[in-house]
Amino acid sequence: MNGGPAGPGGHGGGYGGQGGYGGHGEPEYFGDGGAQPHGGADPYAADNPGHTQAFAIGEDPYSQGETYQAGSAPAGPIGPRLHWKDLLRGIVLSPQQTFLQMRDYTMWGPALIVTFVYGLLAVFGFDGARKDAINATLSNAIPIVLITAVAMMISAFVLGVVTHTLARQLGGDGAWQPTVGLSMLIMSLTDAPRLIVAMFAGGDAGFVQVLGWATWVAGGVLLTLMVSKSHDLPWPKALGASAIQLIALLSIVKLGTF
């Protein structure tokens, strides 16, 4: 009869189980114990007993990177692109919300057109250039006005690029196209009151000089606020990034009023 117990190396019962993976008296985890069927879960997968999943120091595995942190750009635009009328109005009336909403959008159309028109009028804000343009023939005056407009547009663009570059070096995270476009609009819109008055009263008038300083300060405030919102920088760094552009604007105002 075959009713006797199997030997230690046999195929019967005992801790060895089927296939003889473990000997008699060995711990169960040395053998399969007959408990893991073919095609079951991976015993080496993360979070199984005896196996853990590694995370980086300070990493929250449940945040999925959605938490906003200072110095990091938002996940996406906080609002729709503003119409050009709302954009120009917002820069003057609600600059903080406008700069924050437009930090992810380009605005080359309004920026180039407004700056070009500003450059066309800038000739008549400078006493010497205005006399030359008025006394010149039409064929000579048109090139003077157009060249001045193009020069002002290129200057505003270059100054905006410089401001953006300094902001990035100081830790900013904004895109260059919105920064340059907004800086061009700020430069043109803030100096427009002085320019319009200077066209009729002359750049040497005392009121025009005072107005020039006031609009320059207003432009500095708006430019600093724009860099702060567009690049997520504290205002001292934003002011530092705007310094070169503000100095250049002051020089332009001085050339026209002093």
How would you describe the overall organization of this protein?
The chain is mainly alpha-helical. The protein has a domain at 92-257. The chain is built from eight helices and no strands. It has helices at residues 84-93, 95-101, 108-122, 127-135, 138-169, 176-201, 206-231, 235-257. Helix 3 (108-122) packs parallel to helix 6 (176-201) and helix 5 (138-169) crosses helix 6 (176-201). Residues 6-22 and 58-73 have low confidence and may be disordered.
Helix content: 55-70%
Largest sheet: none
Into which percentage range does the β-strand content fall?
under 5%
Measured distance between first and last alpha carbons: 123 Å
Order of helices and strands: HHHHHHHH
User: Strand pairing plus helix content: what structural class?
Assistant: mainly alpha
Total of DSSP H or I helical runs spanning 4+ residues: 8
Give the assembly state of these chains.
Answer: single chain
Principal-axis shape: globular
- Overall mean pLDDT: 78
In short, what is this structure?
Helices cover 57% and strands 0% of the residues.
